[in-house]
Amino acid sequence: MGIELGSVQETLLIPLYYRATESMQEQPLFYDQAAVEILPELDYDFSSFDSAWSLRNDVVVRTVIFDELVTDFIRRHPDGRVINLGAGLDARFGRLDNGRIRWYDLDMPDSISLRQRFLMPTDRNAFISKSMFDTSWFDDVGADAPTLIVAEALFFYFDEASIKNLLSKMLNRFPGAELVFQSICPEIVGRTKTVPILRRTRAELRWGIHSGRELSHWDPGYQFLGEWSLVDRFVERWRWYRLVKVLPYYGRFLREVMKISHIRFATEST
């Protein structure tokens, strides 16, 4: 099946490939049945992906961490809602569904069109065919409920002004909601050449922060809850992990360039 996607949208193929290949290992860290089934249906040359072991680890480890964070939210709010920004071909709803949660997968129209070839919406899993910057989607996610917004491998493809504006609107519309997002550090911004697979998709790295704590400088309504560096999980998979311990600067850099942050939007009364 042929694929026609925009530059950023094409990056959805990266996690699909690595989640599928991880799932086919003898002892996978997770099993993504949808990815396994979709991958052979796509007419796309994935051969260059096999040599990018660091990016593979990024996808696999971040998948585990995001799964854990979403699972914890569902445990605390079994009747809440999850809004998955830049969903692509992500099938997290199918892996983590508790039978009660309401889930919204949002992405650009070309990505949602591709998604609908393989995955079907349900009464509790809606697909929203819009840019995340088209905030009319705020009206598409139902009545007020405990809310988790997920942004995996997404925000760093856009400039700071755009992300700052989007989060400000979310803060005002979803008081009390939680946000988990992946970010890179500022030193990597503009260095797309360091990730050969991204050169192929024409996507660019545009925004980075050293820590999710920095968002509180934008607005005190962003309450920092936690942060996880990918290189500190499943350390046996990172070939150069020993350098993290013996070279403090290098270790700090790696922790900042591959991390997931968790914040809460303050309530209106805060």
TrEMBL record:
TM helices/strands, residue ranges: none
Keyword Transferase: yes
Database matches in Pfam families: LCM
GO biological process: methylation
Protein name: Leucine carboxyl methyltransferase
GO MF: methyltransferase activity
UniProt key word Transferase: yes
InterPro entries xref list: Ppm1/Ppm2/Tcmp (IPR007213), SAM-dependent_MTases_sf (IPR029063), TcmP-like (IPR016874)
Keyword annotations from UniProtKB, A to Z: Methyltransferase, Transferase
Source organism of this protein record: Allorhodopirellula solitaria
